[in-house]
Design goal:
Elements: H1 2-28, H2 34-60, H3 70-76, H4 89-116, H5 120-144
Helix pairs in contact: 1-2, 1-3, 1-4, 2-5, 4-5
């Protein structure tokens, strides 16, 4: 069970860093497609924000505590902070695509561990998170493509 708990903490830390990065990009995105990009990022950071509580609560159902500091969230994350922030939307989006790919891999890994531990409810929850991050990744990848 300890391995599952560690993975759930990594899921929370990684989601938190992706949330923060997405929100900061929302504030700083510029260019001719500003409004569309600004709204896309807002939709994504809101969806991720809503998931954080569920991730934490699923971790608590394993009778484990969740991280309580920003430094611990960053330490647990498999995605690094975007420092300094990219200046163009293309770089922002390609960085977020990679972050969502990392998150999908982590969620799949965590789901396999949950399955082996007989945590079917958690497996179902993680499947939903995989689907959400795959959709975010798809939308960002499509938005980063040059106009045709």
């Amino acid at each position: 069970m300890e391995n599952l708990i560690l993975h759930m903490r990594e899921v929370l830390g990684t989601a938190f860093v992706i949330y923060t990065t997405t929100h900061c990009y929302h504030w700083n995105v510029e260019g001719p497609n500003f409004y569309e990009y600004h709204k896309l990022l807002e939709l994504q950071y809101n969806e991720i924000w809503e998931s954080l509580d569920d991730i934490a609560e699923h971790t608590r159902t394993l009778d484990a505590y969740v991280p309580q500091s920003m430094s611990r969230m960053i330490e647990l994350s498999r995605v690094e902070e975007a420092l300094p922030a990219p200046t163009g939307s293309h770089d922002m989006f390609t960085g977020l695509v990679m972050a969502h790919e990392i998150m999908c891999d982590l969620l799949l890994e965590t789901s396999k561990i949950a399955q082996s531990e007989g945590q079917e409810g958690l497996v179902n929850f993680l499947g939903g998170r995989i689907e959400a991050h795959q959709k975010h990744r798809w939308m960002l990848r499509a938005s980063a493509k040059p106009n045709r």
